[in-house]
Amino acid sequence: MRPPLPSLNALRAFEAAGRLGSFKDAAAELHVTHGAISQQVRLLEVWLGAPLFERHNRRVVLTSAARAWLAQIGPLFDQLAQATARFGLPEAVPRTLAVNAPATFTLRWLVPRLEKFRARHADIEVRIETSNEPVESLKDTFDIVIRGGPDTFYGYAMRPFLAEERLPVCSPTLLERLPLGAPEDLRRHTLLHTSSLPRVWPDWLAQANMPAITPAAALTFDHFYLTLQAAVDGMGIAMGPTALVADDLAAGRLVAPFAGPRLPSRSYCTYVADEKARDERVALFRSWLEHEGDEFASAHDA
């Protein structure tokens, strides 16, 4: 009879948290919640009858005994992975995950990050379609629907994962040609609009105490990604959602001429029918989105 062993899930949680020195990073690596890692570690501590970590605010430090134990069990996970690979298991058949999301969000935020999910979960084939159709009409076709929120739909589980605000953005070449020192200088510029978002500019101008300003010209597009592309091309000034223009601002394709005001905007949320909420593929993708949203928030709040 072999001596009893603790739960493999608990061991994986401890190994990842000990190696990374963070419950949050361990949760991201294993695609579970921070609470799940904390719970598994507590269960392991109860099983062992001894603490494994010293808690210091937002960081954790291994006890000396736990550090020695980790040094012994860490290589065992590597050996297990290598032995499994050598066994020559048949290649897994990809499991399809159907996702529906708005086009501009997909193009500017989701697609640039999607390779990170695919690298971790090669056995999950993500199929993405874009639309703005109502959530309820997509129930039978898609596993996850991404929309603004938070909203409540009967029979759906909603979880937010990405917050943003809106502020004016334009190309740096346009700003060199027609500088913007204050919101009243918008009188000399072309304002770029999206037909489905008619209140964005008026609401921002009201917050900037310039509700009656008349710009030099206006251009209206039927899709938001066209509005943002027009801003990149120097055609005028658009109201840019911070999450969707962050890469352009970082690369210098766009600049934000004013630090504020920042117009509050709806968060991006996942909506999943109750009967699909326990699907492993759905859980992994939702957790990954929430991790990416946290990473984005941390990088841009710093």
Quick synopsis:
Helix content is 44%, strand content 21%.
Protein topology:
Blueprint: H1 8-20, H2 23-30, H3 34-48, E1 53-56, E2 59-62, H4 64-87, E3 95-101, H5 103-120, E4 124-130, E5 144-149, E6 156-162, E7 165-169, H6 172-177, E8 190-194, H7 200-207, E9 217-221, H8 224-232, E10 238-241, H9 242-251, E11 263-264, E12 267-273, H10 280-301
Helix pairs in contact: 1-2, 1-3, 1-4, 2-3, 5-9
Mind explaining what this structure looks like?
The chain has 302 residues and is of the alpha/beta class. It has three domains: 8-87, Arc Repressor Mutant, subunit A (Orthogonal Bundle), CATH 1.10.10.10; 95-164 and 266-301, Periplasmic binding protein-like II (D-Maltodextrin-Binding Protein, domain 2, 3-Layer(aba) Sandwich); 165-264, Periplasmic binding protein-like II (D-Maltodextrin-Binding Protein, domain 2), CATH 3.40.190. It contains ten helices and twelve strands. The chain has helices at residues 8-20, 23-30, 34-48, 64-87, 103-120, 172-177, 200-207, 224-232, 242-251, 280-301, and strands spanning 53-56, 59-62, 95-101, 124-130, 144-149, 156-162, 165-169, 190-194, 217-221, 238-241, 263-264, 267-273. The strands form four sheets. A five-stranded mixed beta sheet has the order 4-3-5-12-6, covered by helices on one side. A three-stranded antiparallel beta sheet has the order 10-7-11. A two-stranded antiparallel sheet has the order 1-2. Helix 7 links the parallel strand 8 (190-194) and strand 9. Helix 5 packs across helix 9. The chain is elongated and about 85 Å long.
